[in-house]
Amino acid sequence: MHRHDTYAIGRTLAGVQSFSYRRNLRNSLPGNTIVLHPDEPHDGQAGTDEGFRYRMIYVEPVLIQNVLGGRALPFLEGGVTTDPRLAAATATLLQHVSLPLEPLEQSDALTDLARALAAVAGSPARHSRGDFLAARRAREFLHANCTRVVTLDELEAATGRDRWSLSNDFRMFYGTSPYRYLTMRRLDAVRHMLLAGRSLADAAAAAGFADQSHMTRHFSRTFGLTPGRWLRVARAVRRD
């Protein structure tokens, strides 16, 4: 048995992941999300002879609190959940370590996680009027700098708003997060360049993606097609 002063949040990838938590034995199956509250004793072992695989991240409560702004820390009683909101909210943070996150991408993912934890735990919502001018300044800054990595410090300096409040502002007034908005502008640029005859690698680099595979992951996730397949369809539509 051991404990952390952080949230331990993970996903079982294969097998049965068993652990003692709050006086009961819990079993997590592939695809389940594990949420262990700070300072709760637990252990961990394989639930069958076949063993198991999992990924886990450790999130400081202060990061969750920065998003929730003074609400009580969310608590999930059972330690294991199949709730699709948490599965979606943890997908980015639980990616393989070979896929590094940009600063804005990590901030967005932490915001998604905190909001999902609060929603699944039934925490009462806190409504904010938001700051439209800050959100608009952020949008203008992202447009002007969409082909490079934008840091959180830069957004704070450009808007005069702290990163967590700004994230809420942006979602309130533009319906998406700053990083997803930035990614869509990059993908718009990629599509225009591909139609103009640029190669996949050139388009990815010019649009600000780390490399072609980075661009392809975002393109396929957003449009449901690989860039090459999308280009063939787009050219066929143009001919028709």
Written overview of the protein:
The protein is an alpha+beta fold and 240 residues long. The chain has 3 domains: 7-121, Jelly Rolls; 132-175; 181-239, Homeodomain-like (Arc Repressor Mutant, subunit A, Orthogonal Bundle), CATH 1.10.10.60. It has 10 helices and 7 strands. The chain has helices spanning 61-68, 84-90, 103-121, 132-144, 152-159, 163-174, 178-195, 200-207, 212-223, 227-239, and strands at 7-15, 17-21, 24-28, 33-36, 45-46, 52-59, 80-81. α1 (61-68) packs across α3, α4 (132-144) crosses α6 and α7 runs antiparallel to α8 (200-207). The longest helix is centred in the middle third of the chain and has 19 residues, at 103-121. The chain is globular and about 65 Å long.
